[in-house]
Amino acid sequence: MEKPSFDIRYVFPNFFTALSAFLGVISIIASIKGEFEKAAWLIFISLILDGLDGRVARLTNATSKFGVEFDSLADIVAFGVAPAILLYQTIGHNYGKFGSIVAALFVVFGAIRLARFNVMAPSSEPSIFVGIPIPTAAVFVSSWILLYDKYQLRGYGMLILLASLTVAFLMVSNIRYPSFKKIDIKRHQVFKILILMVAIVAILYLFPIESLTLLITLYILSGIVRALYYIYKFRYNRGKKLSKENNE
């Protein structure tokens, strides 16, 4: 009986996934040793690798069910446990049980977010995310930790913890966020978008921590503002409709 041939195409995307999980564990170790800046940047590198594995899989036509499951397991380490430990080691331990709860809920809700994404993936819209993706939540926590460490924001520890807890709940919410995976760019918009991207890269180069923190915070706030706007619009239209019916 002939054995099935080995297809090397499946190695490359899973290698990036394995490397992402590996760096996640190294980040956890760095947090435990008190090397918070190193731990945060390792999470950012894991994010880049996480983006590469899916793109490599699609480019080489090497997507598989194993790859999907492996990616989720790697994500819970790199973007769930690693930022939670970083958050607890830098800030959470100063607030007793509350700090422990925030770190634990971040991991648990991140796992729920990943499970829901895997279930919904076949029927979900490629242009939106339902709830904040766990890598985005991890970048939010890591960037604020870098800012906290750089500017010695010791008086704002509770605010960062509360913000991280809010982001944890947003992961399992139904609030929509833009995906940016598939962007329909018109030809006349290419030049403007190129200029915008160059400007963003320049600002990131000059103020990497500050600009990254600002961008990720604005992204998360945009979903909340958008949801509140639609709730207000729905209630306003419903009230207007009821008022019109009563007048008739």
Overview of the molecule:
The protein has helices at residues 11-32, 36-59, 65-90, 96-120, 134-150, 157-171, 190-206, 208-247, and strands spanning 128-130, 176-178. It is an all-alpha fold. The protein has a single domain, classed as CDP-alcohol phosphotransferase transmembrane (TM) domain (Four Helix Bundle (Hemerythrin (Met), subunit A), Up-down Bundle), CATH 1.20.120.1760. A two-stranded antiparallel sheet has the order 1-2. The longest helix is centred in the last third of the chain and has 40 residues, at 208-247.
Mind describing the biggest β-sheet?
2 strands, antiparallel
Widest sheet: strand ordering? 1-2
Q: Kindly estimate the percentage of residues that lie in beta strands according to DSSP.
A: under 5%
Average pLDDT score: 86
CATH topology category name: Four Helix Bundle (Hemerythrin (Met), subunit A)
| Helix/strand/pairing category | mainly alpha
CATH class: Mainly Alpha
Query: What distance separates the N and C termini?
Result: 81 Å
Order of helices and strands: HHHHEHHEHH
How many strands?
2
